[in-house]
Amino acid sequence: MADPTVLIESSPTRGQDKRRDKGSDFSELSRRIADAGLLRRRPLYYTVRFGAVALALAGGVAAFVTLGDSWGQPAVAAALAVVFGQLALASHDLAHRQVFSRRRPSETGGLLVANLLLGMSYGWWMNKHTRHHANPNHEEKDPDVSPDILVWSRRQASRATGLPRFVGKHQAALFFPLLTLEGLNLSFNSFKALGSRSVKRPVLEGTLLVAHFALYFGGLFTVLSPGKALAFIAVHQGLFGVYLGSVFAPNHKGMPMIEGGTRLDFLRRQVLTSRNVRGGVLVDAFMGGLNYQIEHHLFPSMPTPALGRAQALTEAYCAELGVPYHQTGLLASHREALRHMRSVGEPLRDAR
Fold this sequence. Notes:
Largest sheet: 2 strands, parallel
Helix content: 55-70%
Shape: globular
Number of helices: 18
Mean pLDDT: 92
Oligomer: single chain
Number of strands: 4
Strand order of the largest sheet: 1-2
Strand content: under 5%
Radius of gyration: 21 Å
Structural class: mainly alpha
């Protein structure tokens, strides 16, 4: 299992000195990946995948309208939570230009999927996610490990005050219950970001967000009685948040953190802080290819269907260099993440 400690600068690994004359270690891996044709766009794959998600969304809406004011609607809400999770993964791939090589169609698709269909700001999320990719698990530079409510290192725990200090004591037990609020949290932060520099087109994004929620709440409270509508929202948003968290949490949580001042080259910064999740076709579909997190971080624009082949090349190359490469099963990845969360919260429990 990966040791969830803070990374420090290490000495060159075996073979690294020899490669310095020929370029960085990542350059060599990049050449092998390109030679294998793994960076080519896969339009047929994305046409089929996005078409299937669109059909699932249309089917969910049709089922909602057909069923009407019924207590059977929570089942529709649960199904649509999965569809919304797949829409989020589609938005992620569009943002990374895995689908289109050019900025304009990628941005247009991202705005339609994220803002209009999901109720999440594409510009805000794009800014946040780009910073995460540049410095994964960096205590000071990665917004995904900032001590907002949860703490991700003992140093963060020692400095925590207010709500993070209270939640941090029991954050491992509270993690999945808190995930039920993640969908609403994304929407709240999206509206909040409209006044910030992270959103370059606040009027357009704000209009699309308002349109989403007008359709969402308007449809719910038109078709359903207030009680059933609130139950639908609770099931749909709660399961959507859990789905997102189950996809993104295994990728880095519980992997080594990076302190300010630590120097690592690009390849080691991405590989050492990321975790791959095995599991075959079902896990690939559930996680939208993000279970190949190491390869995704090394080659963010690589289309999803190429990640499996890239994994074998990357793992073999890391073995040549002596760079630790970590992958595990889905349940084991969550155990590692929760174990890490409990460990870093220990100073807060001891301070009682």
